[in-house]
Amino acid sequence: MKKILLLCILLISQFTFAQDDSKSDLEKLLGKAQEVLSNVELPDLKKNKDYFVLLTSDPMSNPSAAMMSINTASEALKQGHNVVYFAAGDGVQIVMKDIIRNLHTVTSHGGNTNNLSKMAEKLLTEFSENGGIIHVSEGSFLTYGVNQENSDELLIGINDINWSYPKQLIEVSSNADIVFSY
Predict the structure, then answer these.
(1) Which residues, at least 6 apart from 159, have a Cβ–Cβ distance to it below 8 Å?
(2) CB-CB neighbours of 24 under 10 Å
(3) Residues linked to residue 50 through DSSP beta bridges, in sequence order
(4) Is residue 13 within a helix (H) or strand (E), and if so which, with residue range?
(5) In this predicted structure, which of 36-40, 98-102, 116-120 has the lowest mean pLDDT?
(6) Per the CB 3.0–4.6 Å rule, which of 13, 65, 124, 170 could disulfide with 57?
(7) Model confidence, pTM
(8) Which residues of 137-159 are buried (b: 16+ CB within 10 A; e: fewer)?
(9) How far are the Cα atoms of 66, 74, 126, 161, 176 from residue 81, in angstroms, in the given order?
(10) Is 137 helix (H, G, I), strand (E, B) or coil?
(11) Tens digits of residue pLDDT in 134-179
(12) Given this model, what pLDDT does residue 11 score?
């Protein structure tokens, strides 16, 4: 970006203060500009990004935040990005069977049927099966009586849950290109 800025300043100064408007000077200037621009690295906008999606909201109090976090993580993964979904605070409840399967009871989204709950569980399960990485706050889960020993009976079927603490939250989020927080 600095090179582009310098090039613009150079071009403006050449056009503004030039004593001789000959074609050869202009050609030399354009040649210099092409040389500078050929060395400028532009970001690859289609490159895969590292996404970090954080849910701390209570899914039963803010079901829209819970659904947006799941949809965002799922869509980013479908588009080929690397995605980490991190549930912490009250957000850890989203992977609890009793919560995600009753999400439809606290919102009219989904036409007052259990379709919303089924979709949320399906998306989160598929996310974990298709390479999405899921972290949950182990400390936050203790508030709800969930631990690694009883997690199979209380949580939905997710592949490879990473039981984490604030240390991992900071490490993982600081490596992301894009962060969403719900």
Answers:
(1) 128, 129
(2) 8
(3) 82
(4) helix 2-17
(5) 36-40
(6) 65
(7) 0.75
(8) bbebbeeeebeeeebeebbbebe
(9) 20, 10, 15, 19, 11
(10) strand
(11) 999 999 999 999 999 999 999 999 989 999 999 999 999 999 999 9
(12) 54
Residue with tokens 């970006």: 1
Residues in the chain: 182
Backbone φ, ψ for residue 77 (5° rounding): -65, -45
One-character DSSP codes across 24-64: HHHHHHHHHHHHHHHTPPPP-TTS--EEEEEE-S-TTT-HH
Q: H-helix or E-strand containing 22?
A: none
Query: How much of the chain, in percent, has pLDDT values that exceed 70?
Result: 82
DSSP string over 59-120: TTT-HHHHHHHHHHHHHHHHTT-EEEEEE-GGGGGGGBHHHHTTGGGG--TTTTSTHHHHHH
